[in-house]
Amino acid sequence: MSVVIVDYGSGNLRSAAKAFERASRQAGLDMDITVTGEPAEVARAERIVLPGVGAFGDCRAGLAARGGMIEALSEAVIGRGRPFLGICVGMQLMADRGLEHGVHQGLGWIAGEVRPLAPGDGALKVPHMGWNDLAFRTPHPLFAGIVAGAHAYFVHSYYVVCADAGQCLATVDYGGPLCAAIGRDNMAGVQFHPEKSQAVGLRLIENFLTWRP
């Protein structure tokens, strides 16, 4: 089974690859985990992971700069229904648009937009950085074996607002509820970093590797 982690110049690729390799070993799975910036490899992959660190617009430009990458992602994920996981800004890119330093087009896979954090509690700092509890809104195979209130590691200053509230799978409280995971069909995204979230993150990765949407 081939799993690609997309390299487009923005993402914690080494730690992500190590986490996916470890989760695969722990689950006894025979997975070929590859980090690649080649659109042809992405188009052929059986599972796709899109990480992302930095500003929404920069990440979107980085994807576009890899000639054919956006088309390859669309072919594999939308056209062929391959399981897809977006991480942090990789999740945000699934939305229609991002409002970070201007308005930037997203992939348009999840209706909604990415807005700046504005915690209701003035004592809370931006970015939201550190461990926080997950609250699950909708049952999903990615969360199998993960209990409500499980801790995950966040680093972000923007968050996704879904047009369809049913596509927000989990929330986190940071001066009010924020969407921490989104999804529909064969696509899912998490605002937190599973590669930094220890046992919870490894379990979510394992669930993704065995997910059959």
How would you describe this protein?
The chain is of the alpha/beta class and 213 residues long. The chain has one domain: Rossmann fold. The protein contains six helices and 14 strands. The strands form three sheets. An eight-stranded mixed beta sheet has the order 2-1-3-4-14-13-12-9, sandwiched between helices. Strands 6-5-7-11 form a four-stranded mixed beta sheet, with helices on one face. Helix 1 crosses helix 6. The protein is globular, with a radius of gyration of 16 Å. The model has no long low-confidence stretch (mean pLDDT 96).
Defining key terms:
Rossmann fold, alpha/beta, 213 residues, 4-stranded mixed β-sheet, single chain
Brief characterization of the structure:
The chain has 6 helices and 14 strands.
Average pLDDT metric: 96
Characterize the biggest β-sheet.
8 strands, mixed
- Largest beta sheet: strand ordering: 2-1-3-4-14-13-12-9
- Looking at CATH, the homologous superfamily is Class I glutamine amidotransferase (GATase) domain
**CATH topology tier name:** Rossmann fold
Shape: globular
State the helix count. 6
Tally the beta strands.
14
Q: What is the level 1 CATH name?
A: Alpha Beta
The run of helices and strands is EHEHEHHEHEEEEEEEEEEH
Q: How large, in whole angstroms, is the Cα Rg?
A: 16 Å
State the distance separating the first and last CA atoms: 15 Å
Q: Strand pairing plus helix content: what structural class?
A: alpha/beta
Report the sheet-strand fraction. 25-35%
CATH architecture: 3-Layer(aba) Sandwich
The proportion of residues forming helix, as a percent range, comes to 25-40%
Whole-number count of domains: 1
Low-confidence stretches: none
